[in-house]
Design a protein that fits this description.
It comes from Pseudonocardia autotrophica. The chain is of the alpha/beta class. Helix content is 43%, strand content 14%. It has a domain at 94-238 and 314-438: Rossmann fold (3-Layer(aba) Sandwich), CATH 3.40.50.1820. Strands 2-1-14-13-8-7-5-6-4-3 form a 10-stranded mixed sheet, with helices on both faces. A two-stranded antiparallel sheet has the order 9-10. The longest helix has 33 residues, at 37-69.
Length: 452
């Protein structure tokens, strides 16, 4: 079940929730309180240990029951074990599935144009997607032919569609800065026509927010999914560990990581950190593979996820150190003290429609970190949308439930702000809704692969 609310003004001038389609909630999200980082981390790791033991016990019991049923075939266990090991080791580079062409190339980012030829002249504001950038490929927004955020956005009527593809950092790009990233966004939007709908996933979300605050005239709508805006809100293991480490040792540990990576933050280190945050997901995924090794559908879904999750790429060192110090540690975006090239990043400059999607079980970016954005922007309350998906962090961007039930509602709202008034009349919205839902495979009766 998902929830969706937007804010409206009451007769007393106070904010109150206003239902969007498929609304199941009548309360607006509230900002979480601050917690002691050490106590939180101890408690969090204790809970994780319990989950790991529970999962191992479950899988062990299932294994012995299965072994007893297969006792007449002594060679079968060896065969299954070999298939299991082979599936875990068989990795490929993730790829884009939708046809696209590179419209702009820089050493650290590519602008990919997913607009189909017959839609290049459509009277709709173009949309630019900023994928996450946390040591993984940008292809998560086009995860598979059956699970593609880009395909869903395009099917919702936003046919002039682009995405930035963050390239792996190299020795030559280790000094790429926040200024460079904002500049490539600006160059992209100007190439797209001068104004765009921005969709920012995770780290792409705070980057989109900073850009929108500095260039509000270029942003038609701002959609944020799983994006940390108030980095210290809610119960977040990343926020707690950063506050504890940086508060004790400053930036030294992070600089050491970058130094060990030759001037870049190793993607392998980021992956290790993700796994350590929720080890039960990693263990469960591998054990479920063993249990279902003879199910080709499960094995294929496992392979697609592992190809993306385990194929890492480095992050430019200068950019990484900047974001850790200014955002994760000192939380300067939400408190209004962030500056870029001498310019203050004031979120109050953002007055376009704001749409936010959080995950109900997101342990990377808890909802309060995202929803805090609504308190800082100047967007009219009727144009602020909250939505909570039944999903974890990655499920927000590539999960079939979120792509079928949550993203269509948000993107159809974006569409209404992106076409001339004449384009909003008639029955177009219903037909676009059906099309956007069909753009993603139905998740019923299919195997699930545990993911963070």
């Amino acid at each position: 079940m998902s929830t969706a609310t937007s804010q409206a003004s009451s007769s007393t001038g106070e904010r109150r929730p206003h239902a969007l389609p498929e609304n199941t909630s009548d309360t607006a999200p509230k900002k979480g309180g601050r917690i002691d980082p050490l106590r939180f981390l101890i408690s969090y790791n204790a809970r994780n240990l319990t989950k790991v033991v529970t999962e191992v016990g479950r899988a062990t019991g299932a294994y012995w029951i299965d072994a007893a049923q297969r006792i007449a075939k002594p060679g079968d266990a060896a065969r299954r074990s070999l298939l299991w090991l082979s599936a875990m080791a068989d990795r490929s580079e993730p790829k884009w599935h939708l046809r696209n062409e590179v419209a702009l190339a820089t050493p650290f980012a590519l602008l990919r144009d997913f607009t189909e030829p017959e839609h290049r002249d459509d009277a709709v504001v173009p949309t630019l997607v900023l994928p996450p950038q946390a040591g993984h490929s940008s292809t998560v927004v086009d995860y598979s032919p059956q699970q593609s955020q880009l395909a869903m956005i395009r099917a919702a009527g936003l046919t002039r569609l682009y995405a930035l593809d963050w390239r792996p950092a190299t020795t030559a790009t280790r000094k790429v800065s926040i200024t460079d990233y904002l500049e490539v966004i600006d160059r992209s939007i100007r190439r797209m026509g001068g104004k765009a709908n921005l969709v920012g996933d995770c780290q792409g979300g705070w980057l989109a927010t900073i850009y929108a605050a500095l260039h509000p005239e270029r942003v038609n709508t701002l959609t944020l999914a799983g994006a940390p805006i108030d980095f210290h809100a809610g119960d977040s293991v990343i926020a707690a560990s950063t506050k504890l480490m940086a508060g004790t040792m400053g930036m030294a540990p992070y600089k050491a990581l970058v130094g060990a990576g030759g001037g870049n933050m190793p993607g392998s280190a980021v992956l290790s950190n993700f796994i350590s945050i929720q080890p039960q997901s990693e263990i469960s995924r591998q054990l479920q593979l063993l249990e279902n090794i003879d199910d080709p559908t499960h094995v294929e879904r496992y392979r697609v996820f592992e190809d993306w999750f385990k194929y890492t790429q480095d992050i430019p060192g200068a950019f990484y150190l900047w974001l850790v110090e200014n955002l994760f540690w000192k939380n300067r975006l939400i408190d209004g003290t962030l500056t870029v090239d001498g310019r203050q990043v004031d979120m109050a400059a953002i007055d376009c429609p704001l749409l936010m999607l959080a995950g109900s079980t997101d342990h990377i970016t808890p909802a309060p970190q995202l929803f805090a954005a609504a308190e800082k922007v100047s967007t009219p309350v009727d144009d602020i949308t909250y939505r909570t998906a039944t999903a974890g962090h990655l499920g927000l961007f590539m999960g079939r439930d979120a792509l079928r039930h949550d993203w269509p509602v948000l993107m159809e709202t974006v569409y209404t702000h992106s076409v001339p008034e004449t384009g909003k009349r008639g029955g177009g919205k219903a037909s676009r809704r059906r099309s956007s839902v069909r753009a993603v495979a139905d998740p019923r009766n299919t195997p699930r692969v545990p993911a963070p």
